[in-house]
Amino acid sequence: MSIYNDYVQEVVERKGQGLNPKPIDGAELLSEVIAQIKDVNNEHRAESLRLFIYNTLPGTTPAAGAKAQFLKEIILGESVVAEIPTIYAFELLSHMKGGPSIAVLLDLALGNDEAIAKQAAEVLKTQVFLYDADTARLAAAYEAGNSIAKDILESYAKAEFFTKLPEVQEEIKVVTYIAAEGDISTDLLSPGNQAHSRSDRELHGQCMMSPAQQAEIVALKAAHPDASVMLIAEKGTMGVGSSRMSGVNNVALWTGRQASPYIPFVNIAPIVAGTNGISPIFLTTVDVTGGIGIDLQNWVKKTDAEGNVVRNEAGDIVLEQAYSVATGTVLTINTKTKKLYNGDVELKDISKSFTPQKLEFIKAGGSYAIVFGKKIQTFAAQTLGIEAPTVFAPAKEITKEGAGLTAVEKIFNKNAVGVTPGKTLHAGSDVRVKVNIVGSQDTTGLMTAQELESMAATVISPIVDGAYQSGCHTASVWDKKAQANIPKLMKFMNDFGVITARDPKGEYHSMTDVIHKVLNDITIDEWAIIIGGDSHTRMSKGVAFGADSGTVALALATGEASMPIPESVKVTFKGQMKEHMDFRDVVHATQLQMLQQFDGENVFQGRIIEVHIGTLLADQAFTFTDWTAEMKAKASICISQDETLIQSLEIAKSRIQIMIEKGMDNHNQVLQGLIDKANARIEEIRSGAKPALQPDANAKYFAEVVIDLDIIDEPMIADPDVNNADVSKRYTHDVIRDLSYYGNDKKVDLGFVGSCMVHKDDLKIVSQILKNIEAEKGYVSFNAPLVVAAPTYNIIDELKAEGDWEFLQKYSGFEFNDAMPKTAARTEYENIMYLERPGCNLCMGNQEKAEKGDTVLATSTRLFQGRVVEDRDGKKGESLLASTPVVVLSAILGRIPTIEEYKNAVKGINLTKFAPISTK
C-alpha cells in the first residue's frame, strides 16, 4: 500500500499548510483506495470511502476511469458496498461529467437488465458531454431497434438536460467588496509567480489578493449568508491583462458556490463588476463558470452648466459618483427586469449582463454545457429524422442593409457555423465559428489539460488546422516545479494531437519559443480565427482572441468557439515617421492620440482594432497587434497589402519548415499541411483569384482614428505612474509620455529587451547601438543590468548567421546554455548584459523578476504592480515601457537619456520604419 501511504503523508503535509487532501487523479492510487473499501475490516476503509466519493477528479482522468468501473460493479451487484447502494452509485456517475462514466452508463443502458437500463437512461438524459464514440453507440442501438436508445434520443432532441434544470432565480442579493481601486489585473486574482499551483485549485486559491482580503470576504459571507459577494474594480476595469481561468476560479472559490458536492474545489457562479466593466477575455471566462459580469458605470464624467467636461489642474477629467458601491453595500440584481437596485432604488440597467445566451449559461452552470447541449440536441434530432424544437435562445442575427463588411465581419461570415442560409451578419450577431489555429501556453496548459479531461475529450478536433503547446512561460528557470509539471503537460498535449514545444521523449530540441510568435508563424491564412491561452494572442494575420484555459480546451475539443461579432474601430495613419523614431513609438502614440481624440474615452475597449498597416511584415506588424491587448481591445486585425502578405507567408513557411526539421511534426503531418495551405494561399493572391483581405469601402465602424505620424517627434514611454495621487490612475497603459518629460535624471535600475513585443530587428538594434558606442568611446560599460531575451530560437539562429550574435556575446556577462539551464531564479543582477534563454522571462514574472523596488525600463507589455518588479519598503517597483533603443541606452547610462543622447546613439541604425498606405 505504498502509494496510499505516500498520499497519506502528503495529506499530513497539506494539513500543516491548512489544506485539504489533494484531489485524486491517478488510477493506481484510486485502485488502492477501492481495495481498501472492499476490505470491510481495513483500518483505512472509512477514509477511503470519503476519498472515493468526494475527492476523486471526474472526466477522463485515470482515476475517473477506475471510479466509473467500480460504480458499474456495484450497480451490477458484482461488488457490494453498504454505503453505496445502486441509486447512490447512479448519482455518483451522474456527477462525473463524461468520459468513462458515459461509457459505463451506455453499457448499462444498452444492457440486458431492463430495470438497470431504465435507471441508466434517466441519468444519461441529464448528460451533455458525449463525443462521437458515445453518440455512435446510441445511434447504432437506435437503428437496431433498442427502445431505451430511442427514449434517450427523444429526451436529447427535446433538450430535457437543459429544460428540466431550475430556472435562474429572479432576484439575486449581493454584498459588495471593492477588491481594488483602478484597473484590476488578473495578477491580483492569480499571481504569475504562483502559476505552478494553478491546477491545484485549493492551494492556488490561497494566493488571491491577500490573506487579509480573503478574511474580509469570509466575514462578509458570514454577515450576509443570503447574499453573494460581488468583487468590484472601483474606478477601473475588472480582469485586465492576462486571460486567466485561474483568476475566475479563485474568485469563484472564495465567493461562488460548489458545482457538485462530489467534485472538490470546483466552484461556479462568481459575480464580478467594474466601474468600467469587465475585460472582454475575463468576461468570457466568467461565462465559462456560469457567473455574472456587470458594467457598473457608477463613476461618470463631471460636466459644467454648459455640458462641457470638467478637468482638474493636471488636465485629467474629473469623475463624480453616480451611486455608491462601497464595501458592504447590499444590492439586488433582478434577472427579469435586468436592473441593479439598492432597495427600491434603481441604480443601473444591466441588460448586457443578461442576454438570452448569458441567462442560459447561468442556468446551465456554465457555457460548456450549452455548447455541448446544442450539439447533442442536433445529433439526436438528425438521428430521429425530426426537426429539433426551439429550446435555446436563437442566435441574434443582425444584418444592416446597405452596409458593407469590416474585415472581422468578413472573417466571421466565412467561418460561421449554423447561420441562416443566405444571411450576411454584422457586428452584434451571435455566431458559432470554426477555429483554425489554437494555442496553449505552459502556465495555463495544466488547467487546459484538466478542462479537456473534465469535458471528456481525448483527441483534437479534426477541423482544427493546427495547434501548438508552448514552453515559453517556464523557459527562464528549469526548477523543480517546471521539471514536475512541464513534461507531464507536454505528454498529455502530444498524445492529444497538439504540436508541442518540448518532446516528452526528448527526440527533438526543446524549444521554448514564445507562444504568440509561433502562432503568428503557423497562422497561414489572414481569414483564420485563432484562439490562444493568453491575452497576447493577437496575430498579424487573421483575427485572434486571447482566451482562458477552458475556452482553449473547448476549441481543441470541438474546433469551434461562440461569441458575438465585435464592433470594429478603424485605425489609419497619415504623415511620415521621423528618421530617429522606432515603430514602437508609433504604437504608444496610437494609444495617446486615440485618447486625445475621444476626450479620454477608450474607444478601443472591448472592440476590434482594424489597423491599416499593410506595408509592415508580420513580425513588425505584430508589435502593434500585440500591444492592442493593453489597449483593452478584444482583438485586432491587420490589413495587409498583397505583396507584403506574400513575403510574410514565405517567412512563416521557412520557420514551419525548421520545426519539421527538428522533428516536431506529428503523425497527421499538421505542420506540412500548414506549409501546403500557405503555398495555396500565396498562389491565390498571386493569381488574383483571392487577394489579401480588405474591408468593404462602405463598411460601418464604431469609430475611426487617424494617427498623425508628423507630430511624433520623441520616443514615447508608457509609465505606470506609481505615485499618482489618484490610485485609480496608477498601473494603466494610458499614461504615455515623451522622453523629454524625464529630463536626464530618471534613474534606471535595470533594462529588459525581450518578450513577444520584440522581433529580430530589435536584437540587431541592440548590437548596432553597442557598435555605435564602442566606435565613439572605444568600449561599452553598463551602469545598469541589461537583460536580453529573444522570443524565439530562429531569431538567434538568424542573428548568428548575420554576425550580430557574436557581437552581443562580446559584451555579455552571461549567456544561456540549454545543456545546463538555470535551476533557480536570479535574485540579484550585476551591471552586465545577460543573454537569456528564449521565452517570456521578466515579462511573465512567474520565475525571473527584477530586484524589489527597481525602476525597470522594458520593451515588454506588462507594467502592472508586482509583475515585472515588486515593491520594497520605501520604494515602489515600476516598469516603464519603451522601444528597444531607449531601453538599451538607458541601461548603458543608468538613467533615461536626453533626446540629444538618444539621437546620437541611433545614428545610422535601421530602426523599424512604417510608411502608411494612404494619408487619409
Automatic annotation (TrEMBL):
Keyword Protease: no
Signal peptide as annotated in the record: none
InterPro entries: Acnase/IPM_dHydase_lsu_aba_1/3 (IPR015931), Acoase/IPM_deHydtase_lsu_aba (IPR001030), Aconitase/3IPM_dehydase_swvl (IPR015928), Aconitase/IPM_isomerase (IPR050926), Aconitase_4Fe-4S_dom (IPR036008), Aconitase_B_HEAT-like_dom (IPR015933), Aconitase_B_HEAT-like_dom_sf (IPR036288), Aconitase_B_swivel (IPR015929)
Keyword tags: Iron, Iron-sulfur, Lyase, Metal-binding
SUPFAM superfamilies (UniProt xref): Aconitase B, N-terminal domain, Aconitase iron-sulfur domain, LeuD/IlvD-like
Listed GO MF terms: 2-methylisocitrate dehydratase activity; aconitate hydratase activity
Domain Aconitase B swivel, residue spans: 176-404
Enzyme class (EC, first level): lyase
Taxonomy, superkingdom: Bacteria
The enzyme's E.C. designation: 4.2.1.3, 4.2.1.99
Domain Aconitase/3-isopropylmalate dehydratase large subunit alpha/beta/alpha: 409-894
Domain Aconitase B HEAT-like residues, every copy: 6-162
Coiled-coil region: none
Pfam family membership, one: Aconitase
PANTHER family referenced in this protein's UniProt entry, alphabetically: ACONITATE HYDRATASE B
Full protein name: Bifunctional aconitate hydratase 2/2-methylisocitrate dehydratase
Native species: Sphingobacterium bovistauri
